[in-house]
Design goal:
heterodimer; A: about 120 residues; B: about 110 residues; mainly beta; 6-stranded mixed beta sheet; 4-stranded antiparallel beta sheet; globular
């Protein structure tokens, strides 16, 4: 069974930094591209970032480009999101999410973690 | 970047009704279109991908259609457990944008 467990969400001041982690199990982690998706409380889904299976290709939403960095450590079955220059509008649940198929193609998300809440507030 | 526009934003229908939700991409996305269902307090679940392929375990009353820029999610006979918010997503390329969501309620 696929399990994705996010951690690292806290209350942080505007301008601050935070690193989220996602521990993956139940599948061959280094075969799959991984996503971060966020959802502000009571709002819709916003795709944030994608990292290829080998970590060599990364992609970002315009809203976080230049401030967030996605990375992964396949030897530890772990995904990360380094978040800098945080703003109030970054307040959201952050979900780690797995592509449906492995490899380098374009695939939908078929598994989600339960999310970790990041609150940006003074 | 490709924008995804869903309509309507909210919808109220009766049990047994046929329900249709549409999603329009600002440019062609080669059928790389997924639909997700998010029930209150839960994480999203994949319903349909490649515009019309039903994810394993999803009831057959759900179907998807469309190509290019215009896509549709149909529920053939609405059930009480279908109360949820539905999202489309372009996964053709990054950014893999979601639509704004359609909140479905029972009348």
């Amino acid at each position: 069974e696929v399990q994705l467990v996010e951690s690292g969400g806290v209350v942080v001041q505007p301008g601050g930094s935070l690193r989220l982690s996602c521990a993956a199990s139940g599948f061959t982690f280094d075969d799959y591209a991984m996503n971060w998706v966020r959802q502000a409380p009571g709002k819709g889904l916003e795709w944030v970032s994608l990292i290829s299976w080998e970590g060599g290709r990364t992609y970002y939403a315009d809203s976080v480009k230049g401030r967030f960095t996605v990375s992964r450590r396949n030897t530890k079955n772990s995904l990360y999101l380094q978040m800098n220059s945080l703003r109030a509008e970054d307040t959201a649940f952050y979900y780690c999410a797995k592509d449906k198929y492995g490899g380098s193609g374009s695939y939908p998300i078929d598994s989600w973690g339960q999310g970790t809440l990041v609150t940006v507030s003074s | 970047d490709i924008q995804m526009t869903q309509s309507p934003s909210s919808l109220s229908a009766s049990v047994g009704d046929r329900v249709t939700i549409t999603c329009r991409a600002s440019q062609g996305i080669n059928n790389y279109l997924a639909w997700y269902q998010q029930k209150p307090g839960k994480v999203p679940e994949l319903l349909i991908y490649a515009a019309s392929t039903l994810q394993s375990g999803v009831p057959s009353r759900f179907s998807g259609s469309g190509s290019g820029t215009d896509f549709t999610l149909t529920i053939s006979s609405l059930q009480p457990e279908d109360v949820a918010t539905y999202y489309c997503q372009n996964y053709n390329n990054a950014p893999r944008t979601f639509g704004q969501g359609t909140k479905l309620e029972i009348k």
